Amino acid sequence: MKMERSWGSVMKKAMVLLLLMTIGEGDPIPRQWPERFHAVLYMNISDGRLQITDLWYDWSAGRNVNLIQKQLGDLLHDVEWNNGTSYYYTVGPNSTNDGDCNVREFGVGIPRPDFLDDATYLRMEYTDGFLCNLWTKLDFIWYWEDVLTQIPVRWDFYDGISSHVMKFEEGVELDKSQWQAPSYCFKTLDNNGTLLLQDHNNKQYVPNHAS
């Protein structure tokens, strides 16, 4: 067993040396995100809470979806559109009511595939058992990418939230039933207190597709 560990250590050091030789001059550049992918994230929130997030990124559709399973909690749909509108909702037993919804306007769209352009390269290091290149940008995000495959392994935000990539699939698309906000997200009251449904085609709620 000791010999196996020693041999494994030698192989890791040899791999690092080989990679350093092949990198040459200039810092590595992070790979752009695919225009469409699915990632399963194990997340440790800054206050110690845990959650599993299914991230469905679709730049061509102008949509980013996080299906968030909080520990021993309800499944939260976080649907973000490129016009800056985000829907946070849970689904009730019959999918038409008994759920909660919060609509927020952030004024910014979803991350571009090249959002890591101009990131500052820090170093090569191991995280989660993978040899990674590490970048940071604007002291907002720290991003680890596997050296060999260029698949993201982990990213941390300035507020302490840490995301560990458990699965990464390119080119897959989320079913509409998982990203179409339910009707109760569009409810409002008129001056007489009558419950109305806002127009789903209202420009406020129609996403701007990525150009």
From TrEMBL:
The gene is LOC120270480. Residues 1-26 form the signal peptide. It comes from Dioscorea cayennensis subsp. rotundata (White Guinea yam). Keywords: Signal. It comes from the Eukaryota. PANTHER family: EXPRESSED PROTEIN, TRANSFERRING GLYCOSYL GROUPS, PUTATIVE-RELATED. This is Uncharacterized protein At4g14100-like isoform X1.
